[in-house]
Amino acid sequence: MATSPCSSSGVSSASSAGLGAEAALEIRTRSVEQTLVPLVSQITTLINHKDKPKRSDKTLQAIQRVGQAVNLAVGRFVTVGEAIANENRELKEEMSIACIEAKRAGETIAQLTDVANLDHPEYDGRITIFTDKTGVVKAARLLLSSVTKVLVLADRIVIKQILSSRNKVLATMEQLEKVSSFQEFVQIFSQFGNEMVEFAHLTGDRQNDLKDEKKKARMAAARAVLEKCTMMLLTASKTCLRHPDCESACLNKEGVFHRMRLALEQVIEIVTDSKPSGENEMAAISIYTSIKEFKNKVEGLRENLYFLSKENLSTMLELILEHTEDFTDSAYTSHEHRERILEQSKLAKMELEQLVSVWMQAQSQKTKDITEDLEVAILKTCQCMNELKRELHHAATSLAADLLRYHADHMVLKALKITGVEGNLEAVAEYTCKLSEQKEQLVETCRLLRHVSGTEPLEITCIHAEDTFQVTGPQIISAAETLTLHPSSKIAKENLDVFCEAWESQLSDMSMLLREINDVFEGRRGEKRAYLSLPRPGKHNANLKALKPDRLDTEEQAKLGKLGLELHLLTSDVDSETEKWEDQENEIVRHGQSISSMAHSMYLFTRGEGLLKTTQDLFHQAELEDDDKPLLLLEIDKLIPVCQQLQITAKTTVQGKNATFAKVDTCIRKTKGVMTILSQVLPLSCKLLKKCGTGNGWLRSPHPWRENRLQRNTNEDSMEGKTDAFGIKSLEYHVANLTFLESK
Questions:
Q1: What's the alpha-carbon Rg for the chain, to the nearest Å?
Q2: Judging by beta carbons within 10 Å of its beta carbon (0-12, 13-18, 19+), is residue 584 exposed, middle or buried?
Q3: Residue 610 confidence (pLDDT) above 80
Q4: Which of the two residues, 675 and 407, has the higher pLDDT score?
Q5: Whole-structure pTM value
């Protein structure tokens, strides 16, 4: 997967040092990069040494040490490669040849850099790095070529495992579609669940290993679809088996299977780096991107007055203003926002006209340096575009925030459930119309958010949210129709509940998406930790059979997954309450946000994502230190015992898989209890604060949880160097099988 021109500075430097095109690689995964780039750096150091007539002992020893270090590193690398070759017979021959070549090249470099006794007369005729630099370059080329081949072959093994896992899932899905009895369905679905867990594990590692953030976002979107659809597939299939002649039940089931197949296909497209067949992958460019490109062109006039035409700039602005019509033509954009966008668009045209006038004048005078008038025109044009971007951002995010607040009570979904159980066809028809209206509002809002998302990954998340609302809305309607026709059916009721939960979950995800878009706009963005996916030999191989003894059983998976989802929903409730406070610096708000961040990380842990990679991480986070407890806790009787129980549980030492699972389960349950009480305390505190006009100084400043976690992560990262040749942490230190699908 490494054959195109390189995007890595380390590998590029090797190419410029004389290693040639063989070293110019596109590195697509972090595991390949972290293995290859340090080796390239060492080789580049050797090749770039200066040929001086007099060489100190220190220089000679340094060169020898680097050569020996390269040889030792290659030796360890080859050992791992050979072990992987022995476990994958179909690639054994290719891998073995590449390993032999790498070993030979490493030994050659060690010999050529063995220069400790170079100044002694008896060694005068000896070939070394100083007398045969061409030989060193040749050996370096061979080494990089062979090491790269080993890495590519190892990457192919990972891809093959994912493809094989996908094929098993598809085959079992076909069986599930054709079953005609409950007993047969239960047996096959049990197998299907295990296969989906395996697929989730492999694709989760791959997603975290990808360097391309856009691909990572697409993978996350596809895996999110699979997560939600797995439970939908279960209840939709059961409903169809119970009511085989019900048309709406059959449509419901078909929709789920179709969506899962599309998601599986998208995962494979990303993994194999293939484009969708017959499709132009990239959607229309967002306004945010267009404005950024336009400003770059305008600012480029400072360097060169002649590198583009005025028609080019005018066309770019016309395209931006054409996109703003998505906002001004939308029925959901407020009158005030529409007027401000139109006014700013008009101003942008005027500023460009002024810029073009000054620019043409400067060209006619054939001035080399930028004039003061042109500098002012450039600044005013860019400022105008910034204001337009701000207006568009406010329009989209205000609409999204209002919609999320308005639909926070899920009244339409609740009404559909009640009227469905009553078998009230007229009422269900009325509420399905309301849900369709709500769906259109949310779809339109996601489209506007995409324009102002600020990054390609967030654009992709907006598109995913739009697709989810577009698809889930009709599925809820068909599930409600089925329940209305069979009001006493427990399975039909359960099915509607599952689809409604998916809708509520997507609204919650949209709330987080809105927060991320605002963070990007305000310049606040966090860094994520890397995770590697190259295979390892022996018990640490990506072959999942070796993991089975440590894997959670179905009941445990379902427990943690359900708890995680409940915690996720409570986190959204607490966040929405904290956002209502006018004073965001209030200590109550800050403590609420801190605990909410902690709970959200626990939720991500149940999906196999986020910063918490081990059960110990989770337990450490659950230890609410006495110094950090806000005074508010002392005023609330309910919260004190729950926090104390959480502390006791987190600090209790346990051994064995069952005991560890029980501790994880208890920690998440106790945190859920804290969040439930917190979601009630915050609005009450807000009311009291407004009534009494209490100041902000009555609580001690907290130690920010995020800071503590980042510090802890930095310390953990320093331990990550103590790993094998591929730099991959042992799977025992991860709860990697707590992936998103295991929650089902």
A1: 30
A2: exposed
A3: no
A4: 407
A5: 0.66
